Amino acid sequence: MKYTRMGHSGLEVSRLSLGCMGFGHADKGTHPWTIGLDEARPIVRAALDAGITVFDTANMYSHGTSEQIIGTLLNEFGVRNDVVLATKVYVPMGPGPKGRGLSRAAIFAQVDASLRRLGTDHIDLYQIHRYDPDVPIEETMEALNDLVRSGRVRYLGASSMFTWQFARAQYRAAMHGWTRFIAMQDQYNLLMREEEREMHPFCLAEGIGVMGWSPLARGRLALEWGAVSERMETDEYGKTLYTFDEESNREIVDAVGRIAGHHGASRAQVALAWTLHQPAVSTSIVGPTRPEHLTDALGALDLVLCDEERKQLEAPYTPRLPVGF
């Protein structure tokens, strides 16, 4: 495994993170491809053995059962203090004013619920899952700062929003002397590069680390053009993400295949290696639901793409509407 800092912070992270959205009880959420505790156990064990130190989940993944599974396994393996445990808040978890959003009331209620499910007394990286336009950003940032000061949270991160929203939150925190974000978790892959326009330059300038989600574009970059997987067929949210410029997408997918063939590598390894070459990216999040998926992803760490290969992968890209937030 290779390691780096999350942006300019002191937090060391593995270049690959284990995304836990695929862990959970299928009847508790909208992800029918999820796996339970026993199926997740060998994947988490393999991730730890490979040196992965970042485990990313969210309170809403399978309505809290993803947090329960990863918390149980990290404690079962006795490694809780050796890893960076990350989760998120914002998406509705229940009725009433404390069940969703980024109000002070909701944040405090939801962090306590996450801590119980995770079986821990602190969260290493607590991320706002989206921007909440209905709550003053000062209220959100002060509440998050108070969580850090209380010891329940160590670092703060954000996920998937417009750059102006992220900058507004960051500068409001700086103005008041509150804890600022060290991480931005955004959708970043060869089929969705819109974050290169503003978000990634901002993160580089401000020393904020990027955690790229969906580096394989929901599996599209891991398969030949036109092929489908069980997850692609059942992922209703994923079906809304890559509906633009199919000709451009096909050319990109074909380029991934050509370069994979040249290296004797998998398509997934090429797509992942490309993200890891990007200067803003501290860690890319992979979400295996089978051990062989993880083994394949680890091969991307040693795959070096030359300038010409990166040009071939990037050239077919066309501007598109940002989606996913």
Characterise this structure.
There is one protein chain. This protein is an alpha/beta fold and 325 residues long. The protein has a single domain (3-216, 279-303), classed as TIM Barrel (Alpha-Beta Barrel), CATH 3.20.20. Helices cover 38% and strands 15% of the residues. The chain has helices at residues 37-49, 65-76, 104-118, 137-150, 163-176, 199-206, 230-234, 246-263, 267-276, 291-298, 307-314; strands at 3-5, 12-14, 16-19, 54-56, 84-89, 123-128, 153-159, 181-187, 209-213, 281-286. An eight-stranded parallel β-barrel has the order 3-4-5-6-7-8-9-10, surrounded by five helices. The chain has a two-stranded antiparallel sheet with strand order 1-2. Strand 7 (153-159), helix 5 (163-176) and strand 8 (181-187) form a beta-alpha-beta unit. It starts with a strand and ends in an 11-residue tail after the last helix.
Average pLDDT: 95
- Assembly status: single chain
Q: What's the alpha carbon Rg, rounded to whole Å?
A: 19 Å
Helix content: 25-40%
Assess the beta-strand content as a share of residues.
15-25%
Main sheet properties = 8 strands, parallel, barrel
- Superfamily (CATH H level) name: NADP-dependent oxidoreductase domain
The computed structural class is alpha/beta
* Overall morphology: globular
β-strand number: 10
CATH architecture group name: Alpha-Beta Barrel
